[in-house]
Amino acid sequence: MSLLLRRISCHFYKGNQAWRGCSSNKDVPDFDMQNPFEKEKLQCVLCKHKIQVDYKNVKLLSQFQSPYTGRIYGKHITGLCTNQQALVEKEIVKAQSAGLMPTYLKDPHFFEDPELFDAEKPIRPHRF
């Protein structure tokens, strides 16, 4: 009879659901494991690799500029976070005003650099 009372006392009812509050149950595994199906947190390329953007690093900044028009790509194309995108734009303008980067065309020396993103496939679709 005492075993029956012990089993009944280990269950607490909350609404229609039974909640097991007894810690003497040895069948339940006790381990701390992270969710193996949890997706990796998305980060931009510069934040992931902890790259500091500087106006003197023209090779890095030229990858965020169109090779044909010199236009700075938007964050929906580059995949950068808002803070890094604003910093990249500010540093490109600073490098252009210092004469380190051309304003309208990309420097031909940087045409063969590896691409950080695909400008033809933006993250967010645009209207054209």
UniProtKB/TrEMBL annotation:
Any one Gene Ontology BP term: mitochondrial translation
Pfam families: Ribosomal_S18
Domain of life: Eukaryota
Secretion signal, residue range per the UniProt entry: none
Gene Ontology annotations for the cellular component aspect, listed alphabetically: mitochondrial small ribosomal subunit
Keyword terms: Ribonucleoprotein, Ribosomal protein
GO molecular function: small ribosomal subunit rRNA binding; structural constituent of ribosome
Family: Belongs to the bacterial ribosomal protein bS18 family.
Protein name stated in the entry: 28S ribosomal protein S18c, mitochondrial
Naturally occurring in which organism (per UniProt): Callosobruchus maculatus (Southern cowpea weevil)
Organism ancestry: Eukaryota, Metazoa, Ecdysozoa, Arthropoda, Hexapoda
